[in-house]
Amino acid sequence: MTHLGMIIPIILLIIHLALMIFCLSKLFKQDFTNYLSKQLWIFIIMFFSIIGPISYLHFENWEE
User: Fold this and answer.
1) Which residues form the Cardiolipin synthase N-terminal domain (predicted)?
2) What is the reported pTM?
3) 8 A C-beta contact, residue 45 and residue 56
4) How far apart are CA 42 and CA 27, in angstroms?
């Protein structure tokens, strides 16, 4: 495996973890959620890879 072949999965993993941490931090700062309970959103964000955080960002309307 070349160096580029080893670097790309690491970069994708870092992006995935950053997106998951961002969504979880936003979720914990919210007082309420629009569609699902917080516990269900935590499960979806953590266990549905890239689809979970993206669906959270799409469905939950959060404003600061």
Assistant:
1) 18-59
2) 0.80
3) yes
4) 8
